[in-house]
Amino acid sequence: MRAPTYRVSILATALAVAVTGCALNPPPTASELQKEALPHTSIPPAWKAADGAAAPVADRWLASFDDPALSALVDEALLYNADLQAAAARVEQAAGYVKVAGGALLPSVGVVGTGGGKSGGSGGLDGIWLNASLELDVWGRLRYGRAAAEEQFAAVAADYAYARQSLAATIARSWFLAIEAGLQRGIAQQALRSAEALLRVAQDRLRVGIGNEQAVAEASAGVGTYRDNLRQIEQAREQALRALELLLGRYPAAEVAVTDRLSPMPPPVPVGMPSQLLERRPDVVAAERRVAAAFDRVGEARAAQLPRISLTAGVSSVSSDLIELKDTSNPIWSVGANLIAPLYQGGALRAQVEIRTAEQKQAVTNYARTGQRAFGEVENALAAESTLQARAAILEATIRDSERALELARIQYRVGTINLATVEQRQIALYSARVGLLRVQTERLAQRVNLYLALGGSFDLPAVEPVAAK
Description:
four-stranded antiparallel beta sheet, single chain, disordered C terminus, 9% strand, 10 helices, disordered N terminus, Outer membrane efflux proteins (OEP)
């Protein structure tokens, strides 16, 4: 038979209450959060370390190095790097939690069926029960839970975006280091050949009677030193190659192909304004979303202290050949409501509110720490780039002077006007200057990568965002 009309009206009214429950308090806005988390941080209108262009930060920074081999390695790492795959799995996990939290707002429907009989014949009790229940989210407990799950999903998705950018930056820096190691080997080989040539000169001088055995021994020791240094550089190069291969998901066999030249230094890039940094860096966005999630969990915990109201509805159909049922009309409808009010739970609910409040404070602190670190990374990268540019010019001039000084010293040694130690000093100075310039050139490229990462610039076309839970 039909459910009574008044019960239907009650159900409709209750559903309306569920839909139009108490409005949720919104989490703090970005500006409000910045004031709360960074009360002692005065954000300047422009970066202090350098006078960069205030234009918006450009994306696709990887293409600025004009190195197809590097771009191919980044693409490979995005497919096979285990850490990035773990980050992607965390995004999927967070999406699942959103679905779970959203499911609590929907009706729960279940069915129970039974059948029976007796020995030697048919009969028994047969029936089916269909039950539905819906918790009325009057105080917003379930909606706060869903909002927290959605904010957590947004945070994990931002973590994934930052993991992609960090992986691309790490691949680029490792690539430059591997190239530098190969170029250092070339410099060491050249220095070894120069030392061997100097040894031959010392031996020739001894043979014609104008040299001495001490000079030959010193030159021979110098050759041994350069040979040992070459072995160390070769070992460092192999380690750099293996580190790069591990990032790519390959077996660390030190067999990855590396070019024999560093990428040219890209032109200066726009750096935007400090006030824009907190809005574009994915790790800062993730920290901001975690503050919002913590805020919603506080609301969820507070709402859990209030009564819970649930609606229930059911329909059943029962028949039996063994017993006579008092009410034989089928189906049978039922509509009801439940009220659960927490009276005393040993202070657990109040403690839960305190825990969630403390978690919110911690999230705000983490946001402040992330934001301050972001500012520091940009300023450090800008300052380093300016310093390294000046050092490169100094070392280039030093190399030219050292080459000329070594050339003159070799001539003077051949004619006997200076001793071998002076020539070796000039050779060591030239070697050090060449290695120093190579290190500065590599560091300039690495700091440019650090600057892009610190500014929150993307390395490729806009990444495909993870599919949001529905």
